[in-house]
Amino acid sequence: MVVVYAHLAGESPEREQTTQPFGVLMLEEASTGQLDVVTETSGENLDDSYQITVNETTETIGANESVLFSELPVGDHEAELTDVADNCEVEGDNPRTVTITEGDTKTTTFSINCQEPLKNQLVFTSFRDGDAEIFTIGDDGSGASQLTDNGTFDGQAAVSPSGTKIAFVSDRDGDKEIYVMDKAGKNVTQLTNNAALDEYPAWSPDGSQIVFSSQRDGVDDIFTMDNDGSNITGVTTDNEADTNPSWSPDGNTIVFQSLRDGDWNIYSINADGTNVQPLTDDATQGDREPVWSPDGTEIAFASNRDGDEEIYTMDSDGNNVSQVTDNSSFDVSPTWSPEGTSIGFESDRDGGRDIYIINADGTSPFRVTTDPGFDENPSWSPGSIK
Predict the structure, then answer these.
(1) What is the pLDDT of residues 188-244, one digit of tens each?
(2) CA distances from 134 to 144, 155, 213, 337 (A)
């Protein structure tokens, strides 16, 4: 309460000290409370600090610390934890709404779980146990490990930008659908559920979405969805097949292969479905399986334009096509190393179908897998995490 004294006109100011209140004006002071924000970080390869924002005030907070926000008006306030490492996830709502009550201290806890990301690994499909399963192997050819063990098809694996999750295709429910699992092959979650064919998943650069191709509208088209399988949105609507998408590192553009001109060629499209552009125009051979380089300046792809399947690169606008592999057998399914200096691919150049690595300039090919069973569709795990 604020008391305001007043004196009648003509009264001497000297009398103000002894004048009784002419009236008492009740001014209600703003009611406030406090918010104590707590972080609890667990798992592997822990993050060390974050940014916590309440309304428009941002503070740095450690991995297992607390920050007190005082003098918050009574009512609802938004708290958001940011600057979280790619290999860590905040459990529960983020941002979240916290209600402040007068004179009280409200506590909200952000629980963060971190995983050791896959590093220097290639994830690939292998038939070495009799059916298609997903394996990992070091990019030096060491330490092959089986992630799935399902009697049906598991393949087309794609490692998330965080290196902690793997999207893949499986027909374990009777149709080919998109699934996701953690890097150890655990916690398998089905993302799509459609009688049509869903395949070729690829992650957005921030890991929040997955682009894939589907026949749910009668012909292969490109779709996106959130990484939990929600908000499925069509990107292409052409009457001919569009498939094998790859998301640009800036998140703005998707490249894919299409039959819309009668032959397999590579196109780009904005992620919102606008501005389709042809990047290749080879009328006699197939250009397929495009994938962006980590810096977004180049696209690697497979083509049989020289008479057999080889790996090529081109600028992101389709110019400066350069042949990377030159072998009489087939070389397909390119994937970039995290640094963009090498390309992994699938080849039968040594009699079996195996995973290889080659420098992006076409030098120093290296055989990664040597199992008699078919190994195909490699996906390179990301590099450094925050």
Answers:
(1) 999 999 999 999 999 999 999 999 999 999 999 999 999 999 999 999 999 999 999
(2) 10, 6, 20, 19
Better-scored residue on pLDDT, 14 or 172: 172
**How many CB atoms within 10 Å of residue 120?**
15
| CA 113/CA 386 separation, integer angstroms | 15
Nearest to 311 by CA among 334, 292, 290: 334
Q: Where are the alpha helices (DSSP H) in the chain?
A: none
Q: Tell me: the pLDDT tens digits for 2-18?
A: 333 333 344 444 444 44
Residue carrying the six token digits 């199992």: 371
Contact 152, 137 (CB under 8 A): no
CA–CA distance, 159 with 377 (Å, rounded to integer): 12
Number of other residues whose CB lies within 10 A of the CB of residue 283: 8
3-state secondary structure of 16: helix
Token digits for 91?
A: 């459990």
Residue with tokens 């940014």, as numbered in its chain: 51
Cα 153 to Cα 171: distance, rounded to the nearest angstrom: 6
Residue in the structure block whose two tokens are 């004048």: 19
Contacts of 5 (CB under 8 A, 6+ apart): 16, 19, 21, 22
Q: Which residues on neighbouring strands pair with residue 357, listed in sequence order?
A: 344, 366
Contacts of residues 293-296 at CB distance under 8 Å and 24 or more positions apart, as own/partner, are 293/249, 293/336, 293/340, 294/249, 294/336, 294/337, 294/338, 294/339, 294/340, 294/383, 295/249, 295/340, 296/248, 296/249, 296/250
What gap in Å lies between CA 142 and CA 321, rounded to an integer? 33
pTM of the shown model: 0.82
Q: What are phi and psi of 367, to 5 degrees?
A: -85, 120
pLDDT given at position 129: 85
